Amino acid sequence: MPITPNPEAISTITQLMETTLGVLHEIIEIEHEYPKEVMVLMMAFITGIAIQLKDKLETLEPKLGEQLLEAVNLSLNPAGRKTIEKLNKNDSSLSKSFS
User: Fold this and answer.
1) CA-CA distance, 67 to 86, in Å (whole number)?
2) Among 17, 83, 84, 88, which residue's Cβ finds the most Cβ atoms within 10 Å?
3) Cβ(88)–Cβ(75) below 8 Å
4) Phi and psi for 97 in degrees, rounded to 5?
5) Domain extents in the chain
6) What are the Cα distances from residue 35, in Å, to 40, 61, 87?
7) How far apart are CA 96 and CA 83, in angstroms?
């Protein structure tokens, strides 16, 4: 049975992502003497978000946070990244969602 979040929650998350990505793009676009510092900042951001979401989900249901991290790991492997790129491009060769 597919689980679909309510439209209000999706809209809130979408707005949050747009705002956050805008700020992150501004940080990246600043001329940096040491580009790897920016990479470390982004890694810290992503890691912090993942850990906090995992912990929060664990308060809702045991093991739910671990399931989130497993899903993220799957989406980050090469096959998962290709599928996500296709989804983002509305590739008609996909017959089902990676998620």
Assistant:
1) 23
2) 83
3) no
4) -75, 140
5) 10-60, 62-99
6) 9, 39, 29
7) 10
Full-model pTM: 0.69
Which residue carries 């890691």 as its tokens? 47
> Letter for the amino acid at 52?
Q
* Per-residue DSSP letter, 66: H
Contacts of residue 93, Cβ cutoff 8 Å, sequence gap at least 6: 86
Q: What is the largest CA-CA distance in the chain?
A: 50
Is residue 81 within 8 A of residue 98, CB to CB? The reply is no
The residue written with tokens 């993942």 in the block is 50
**In angstroms, how far is the first alpha carbon of the chain from the final one?**
13
Q: Which pLDDT tens digit goes with each residue over 31-58? A: 888 889 999 999 999 999 999 999 999 9
Section 54-75 average pLDDT: 93
